[in-house]
Amino acid sequence: MTLALIIILGFIVVASLLGVVAGSRIKMNLENWTVGGRRFGVIIIWLLMAGEIYTTFTFLGASGWAYSKGAPTFYILIYGALAYTLSFFILPPLWRVGKKYGLHTQPDFFLHRYQSRTLGVLVALIGVFSIIPYLQLQLTGLGLIVEVASQGAIKSHWAIFFSFLLTSLFVYTSGIRGTAWVSVLKDIMMLAAVGIVGFGVPAIYFGGFGKMFQVILEQKPTHLIFPGSTSHMGVFWVMSTVLLTGLGFYMWPHVFGSVFSAKSDKVIKRNAIIMPLYQLPILLVIAVGLTAFLVLPDLKNGDLAFLALVEKTYPSWFLGFVGAAGAVTAMVPASVLVLFASTLLSKNVYQSIINPRASEATVMRLSRMLLLIITGLALVFAIFFPNELVNLLILGYDGVCQFFPGVVFGLF
After folding, report:
1. Mean pLDDT for the stretch of residues 69-95
2. Residue ranges in 207-278 assigned as alpha helix (H)
3. How far lies 321's CA from each of 4, 48, 149, 310, in Å?
4. Which of helix, strand or coil describes residue 372?
5. Banded pLDDT at 383 (limits 50, 70, 90)
6. What pLDDT does 385 receive?
7. Is the peptide bond before 227 cis (omega within 30 degrees of 0)?
């Protein structure tokens, strides 16, 4: 067993234990399991939402796009700014409605506002089908990170199985509170890894950011202007994609539902103000991808740019730490995705149309049972069909973006 593998497994176990302990002293009912008793303050909400939004897709995808596509990568910075601005005006009244009427999920909001059980069920089903590719991306990314960071000591399917099994354990016992606690560890690890690598590799290979950009301008200046190293990702593509992803940003069922876990609408407003700070680490991730573009020009898979450059530059123990950070980064969104998928099915499908008289305790038990079933199905798809659903992620965004008008008209 290599040192890198020991570090990776150690942090995965620590994160899982932290998640289990988070709910050990709480009487777990649907309110606590789904929205944490509506008691989360600014810091926890900030870390929780960042944990849900900044995932392995950001960790690998931003650097991979910077490596293979260039300028179009900067759309990631733009749509976040649009989403956070909108959240300042939309999410506080959403929280007030949720608090007043005891809402737990996105379909709860549509059911309450439009008095249509059919609409609530439809929103729940669209939400679950949109979550599936998102969940698969986290698991596939987790397996890729751990396999590369452990230098092949553990295969991706075993990494996925072991990590997601532990993730399901702390979600089963602690609900969203477990996710929130693990988010704290995840953000500390991710910021440390991204900070060290993001500032480090441009300085090591080129003496700083400015000189690194200068070399790109000398060797391939078109990489830094639209459409970059692509043929179609020009200004129109950026504008349309920013609009789609910016409006759909908070429409994902798991992100939408997390709003209800705040203790006040002021917490949500403050969160909207400080969330843009999380765009800064993405700049560093992009810088790593651009550095790899110059240092490792022959990579077959651009998504490996971050890990490949770390492996080339740093000792194996640090590669293990980066792998552990990536694994925990995947565990946080995976946990909340599977939590809300199971809740949508139990509360907004089963209780709405199959057994309207089901008690909250029954819904809670069914949610936990569905959690285990969804975990099993997700593992099967991630291990045996790792690429089947990745192309559906954009369709997922297309799906959840349709909720935006209904949310706005329901609030104002």
Report:
1. 95
2. 209-219, 235-248, 253-258, 265-274
3. 7, 21, 8, 11
4. helix
5. confident
6. 78
7. yes
pLDDT tens for 284-328 read: 999 999 999 999 999 998 989 999 999 999 999 999 999 999 999
Of 328, 382, 367, nearest to 19 (Cα)?
A: 328
CB 56 within 8 A of CB 141: yes
Model confidence over 120-170: pLDDT tens digits?
A: 999 999 999 889 888 988 898 899 999 999 988 899 999 999 999 999 999
Domain locations in the chain?
A: 3-411
89's CB contacts (< 8 A; 6+ apart) are: none
Backbone torsion region of residue 246, taken as left when φ is above 0, otherwise alpha when ψ lies between -120 and 50, otherwise beta? alpha
- pLDDT tens by residue, 341-372: 999 999 999 999 999 999 999 999 999 999 99
Q: What is the CA radius of gyration of the chain?
A: 21
Q: Cα–Cα distance between 132 and 367 in angstroms, integer?
A: 16
Asked if residues 333 and 136 have their Cβ atoms less than 8 Å apart, the reply is: no
Could you tell me the pLDDT band of residue 391, with boundaries at 50, 70 and 90?
A: low
**What are the structure tokens assigned to 15, written together?**
């994160």
Q: Exposed (0-12), middle (13-18) or buried (19+): which is 174, by Cβ within 10 Å?
A: buried
* Neighbour tally for 188: CB within 10 Å: 13
**Angle (CA) 376 382 384, round 5°:** 95
CATH class of residue range 3-411? mainly alpha
Q: What are the residues whose beta carbons fall under 8 Å from the beta carbon of 384, sequence distance 6 or more?
A: none
Q: What count of Cα atoms within 13 Å lies in the side-chain half-sphere of residue 355?
A: 10
Please spell the DSSP secondary structure of 54-87, one letter per residue: S-HHHHHHHHHHHHHT-GGGGHHHHHHHHHHHHH
How many angstroms separate the CA atoms of 313 and 311, rounded? 6
CB-CB contact of 327 with 146 (8 Å): yes
pLDDT of 388 > 60? The answer is no
Higher local confidence (pLDDT), 236 or 393: 236
> Do the beta carbons of residue 317 and residue 3 sit within 8 Å?
yes
349-to-117, 124, 354, 362 alpha-carbon distances in Å: 9, 7, 7, 13
